[in-house]
Amino acid sequence: MTQQATFNNTDDMNRKRVTKREAFLNMMNEIIPWSEFVELIRPFYPKGEQGRPPLGIELMLRMYLLQIWFNLSDEMTEDSIYDSYSMHRFMGLNFTEQRVPDATTLLKFRHLLEKHHLGEKIFKTINEFLEANGCMMRGGTIVDATILDAPSSTKNASGKRDPEMHSTQKGGQWYFGMKAHIGVDAGSGYTHTVEVTAANEHDVTKALDLIRDDDEVVYGDSGYQGIVFWLE
């Protein structure tokens, strides 16, 4: 996918400051081997032989990476791309002709990557580049988890909820969906590991999978109480 000129050139040139988010996304746009990743996904991607043609692989991959990097739910990812200049630019969308893929489309794409273990290969390649260029410093990891909401309605072709989704309660509110468990390099703030489970999986149970062999310190919120027990 070739990045399109999606903003008024004068407005773009008059911007006085590049935010940290924008600088990060500009760097990732340059270093990621997009064509290589697209070909990795292509054998598993819908061919569009029935129904409407599927959205471009690279477009969906960009949306998926934004979700993981910024720890967002499906709906928040969709909304953030509309709201954020840097995300909008990273996606390369022209809003006069295109819309942001909706949350359900992102959910299906994420399922596809999980089913075929493609996300691990993609992040391994990205991490290797970041480490080789001194952008990711080992030694410490921040662990976190985000609930990825999914439609709870049974008004679909199968008449059933997605069997991989589950309900969970957080902050007195019920959610239905999955949970992304994320390991972030403490020095750079870059995501290095992602594990996805049902939403009712406790945060601490996946902590060990988010920690690298040479991490000396791990940071987490109250959801990781008891992490010492799991690491012993």
* Assembly state (oligomeric): single chain
Q: How much β-strand is present in the residues?
A: 15-25%
Tell me the Rg in angstroms: 18 Å
Number of strands: 5
Low-pLDDT segments: 4-10
What is the overall silhouette?
Answer: globular
Q: Which H/E pattern describes the elements?
A: HHHHHHHHEEEEHEH
**SS-derived structural category:** alpha+beta
Quote the average pLDDT: 79
Helix content percent band: 40-55%
End-to-end distance: 46 Å
What's the number of structural domains?
A: 2
Number of helices: 10
Notes on the protein architecture:
By secondary structure, this protein is α+β, with helices and mostly antiparallel strands. The protein has two domains: about 10-125, no CATH class; about 135-230, no CATH class. It is built from ten helices and five strands; from the N terminus they run ααααααααββββαβα. It has helices at about 10-15, 20-30, 35-40, 55-70, 75-85, 85-90, 105-115, 120-130, 205-210, 225-230, and strands at about 140-150, 165-170, 175-185, 190-200, 215-220. Strands 1, 2, 3, 4 and 5 form a five-stranded mixed sheet that branches. Strand 2 (about 165-170) and strand 3 (about 175-185) form a beta hairpin. Helix 5 (about 75-85) crosses helix 6 (about 85-90). Mean pLDDT is about 80; it is low at about 5-10.
Helix and strand arrangement:
Elements: H1 9-14, H2 20-31, H3 34-41, H4 57-69, H5 74-83, H6 85-91, H7 103-115, H8 118-132, E1 140-149, E2 166-170, E3 173-185, E4 191-198, H9 207-210, E5 217-219, H10 227-231
Parallel strand pairs: 1-5
Antiparallel strand pairs: 1-3, 2-3, 3-4
